[in-house]
Q: What sequence folds into this?
């Protein structure tokens, strides 16, 4: 009973911060933009396959696993003994599909290392900021042969900062400092392992097939890579994400 109550409380908190809505929005946009998203998804899978082609056994962690749209899960099952799917929430459809798979382990974890719950609980921004300044790197208390961060780095700060902005009305300087700290913590965590990072790096607002604005999404220095790739993700061509413009992302993929 206590565990059920804890799970319900946790889901209320991440729902309040917008995480469940965002996760549901991803799958809706995927079906709406199916053809446009497929190139991005296949690029993600291909990069992961290239990074793991010499892997044999061991454990892989997938951070931001979500709907597994961009993960070559069957291929990874052939390469690794254990696959840890780590996210703030796992869609029930995905859990049901893989719940009897002995290689796959689901882990519910806030990859900002507690900042989401602190933001929801904080009565003042100062309460949150004290916690942020003392925040430590994620500790999953196990070793991995490879850690894959998939379309997550930008999401770690954008959802949390959107919630903080709506709650505390922060200025751009403060928000930028928060974004940098969150992203840097994630990068520093990844650098402890053999890692693969796939992330949006620039947001492109497009009108009549012309780029009218570019917005940087990376607030820290990315690691030096042994493998690197990049591409354009046609994210939204129906002006849902931005009312006036279509939206694409420049994506960077690195292994280090």
A:
């Amino acid at each position: 009973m206590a565990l059920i109550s804890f799970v319900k409380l946790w889901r209320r908190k991440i729902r309040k911060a917008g995480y469940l809505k965002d996760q549901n929005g991803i799958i809706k946009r995927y079906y709406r933009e199916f053809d446009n998203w497929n190139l991005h998804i296949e690029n993600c899978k291909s990069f992961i396959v290239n990074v793991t082609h010499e892997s044999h056994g061991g454990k892989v962690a997938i951070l931001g696993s979500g709907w597994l749209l961009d993960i070559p899960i069957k291929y990874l099952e052939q390469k690794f003994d254990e696959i840890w799917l780590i996210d703030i929430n796992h869609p029930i459809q995905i859990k049901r599909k893989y719940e009897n798979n002995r290689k796959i382990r689901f882990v519910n974890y806030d990859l900002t290392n507690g900042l989401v719950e602190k933001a929801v609980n904080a009565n003042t921004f100062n309460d949150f900021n004290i916690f942020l300044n003392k925040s430590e790197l994620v500790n999953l208390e196990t070793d991995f042969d490879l850690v894959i961060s998939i379309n997550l780095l930008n999401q770690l700060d954008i959802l949390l900062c959107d919630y903080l902005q709506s709650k505390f009305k922060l200025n751009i300087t403060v928000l930028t400092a928060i974004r940098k700290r969150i992203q840097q913590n994630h990068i520093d965590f990844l650098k402890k392992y053999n890692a693969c990072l796939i992330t949006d790096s620039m947001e492109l607002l497009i009108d009549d097939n012309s780029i009218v604005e570019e917005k940087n999404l990376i607030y820290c220095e990315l690691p030096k890579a042994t493998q690197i790739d990049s591409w354009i993700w046609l994210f939204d061509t129906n002006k849902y994400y931005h009312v006036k413009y279509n939206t694409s992302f420049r994506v960077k993929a690195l292994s280090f």
Notes: Strands lie at 59-63, 82-87, 104-108, 146-150, 195-207, 210-216, 227-236, 246-255. The chain has one domain: 2-255. Residues 27 and 67 are 7 Å apart (CA to CA). Residues 34-52 form the longest helix (19 residues).
